[in-house]
Write a structure and sequence with these properties.
Elements: E1 9-13, H1 28-42, E2 50-60, E3 64-66, H2 95-106, E4 113-115, H3 122-131, E5 139-145, H4 150-160, E6 168-174, H5 180-183, H6 189-206, H7 211-219, H8 227-230, H9 238-247, E7 253-259, E8 262-269
Parallel strand pairs: 1-6, 2-5, 2-6, 3-4
Antiparallel strand pairs: 1-8, 7-8
């Protein structure tokens, strides 16, 4: 296989629904973080030929890929201002890549499916609009497993690793903190400590040099300090598992910020 260009791997905490696109003051630090990430993306020696998003907002029994040539947007949120449902992101899809990737996933023992109807959810189009506003890079989305099994998502990351050598930028989109109740409650000292403890554990884990040790820790993430509070449900964390395994190396850079009064992080692997 000819190596085209090696792309990094990126995990994004994507904020609360469409709020980062609405100049929400509680997302000011997240927007600053995204500006720094966009600057880093603009400095890449080769622009990616496609973007593959693994979003927290799509779960299926078997791996499924968006396959529309002109994907719509899926406004999978409610209760926001009218302009939240009039957003446009006219990015093209990557149906040929979707077919190729489905075949590749088949070699790993999965029966992958193509979905030509589903639109890109806000875990894709919100960071897409912020980081790739020209909408000039083909984009597709891959679902999470609805089992929410950590081992399966690490294996999925391994199956995607070869894409890095094919000029595809792999982007996990979730949130390093995702306790919906806590987002709307006052921040107590105890909860702030749990939030920071888990963020610190995550950074230390992702920086481990030994791949087997990194993945062992990620498999047992529920034992980490603050894990149960920060992630009552797994779906916003598991894109990190996919990214860490796809990268196959320690994380290179972390950006930490507050959004909705809670600490969150974004990660970059060279």
């Amino acid at each position: 296989m000819q190596v085209l260009a090696i792309q990094p791997v990126l995990f994004l905490s994507h904020g609360g629904g469409p709020l980062p696109l609405l100049d929400d003051p509680a997302h000011a630090e997240l927007l600053l973080t995204y500006a720094l990430i966009r600057h880093k993306l603009d400095a890449l020696p080769h622009s990616p030929s496609a973007l593959l998003f693994i979003s927290a907002h799509w779960e299926t029994r078997e791996p499924t890929l968006t396959a529309a040539a002109q994907p719509s947007l899926l406004f999978d949120y409610y209760g926001f201002p009218p302009q939240s449902y009039q957003l446009r992101y006219p990015v093209v899809g990557a149906p040929e890549l979707a077919v190729t990737l489905a075949e590749q996933l088949g070699k790993w023992g999965w029966t992958a499916h193509l979905d030509s109807e589903r639109g890109l959810d806000h875990g894709v189009f919100v960071p897409g609009m912020l980081l790739f506003p020209r909408a000039d890079i083909p984009c597709l989305q891959l679902s999470l497993f609805d089992s929410l099994d950590a081992a399966a998502h690490l294996q999925l990351g391994h199956a995607l690793r070869a894409l890095r050598n094919e000029n595809v930028l792999i982007i996990g989109s979730g949130f390093s903190f995702h306790n919906m109740r806590a987002f709307f409650d006052p921040v107590t000292q105890q909860e702030a400590a749990l939030n920071l403890a888990f963020e610190n554990w995550l950074e230390v884990t992702l920086r481990l040099e030994d791949e087997r040790e990194r993945e062992r820790c990620l498999l047992k993430w529920k034992q980490a300090p603050g894990a149960a509070f920060c992630h009552p449900r797994e779906e916003h964390l598991l894109p990190i598992h996919v990214c860490a395994a796809a990268a196959g190396k320690p994380v290179t850079q972390e950006w930490r910020f507050t959004a909705l009064n809670r600490h969150g992080s974004c990660y970059w692997w060279d």
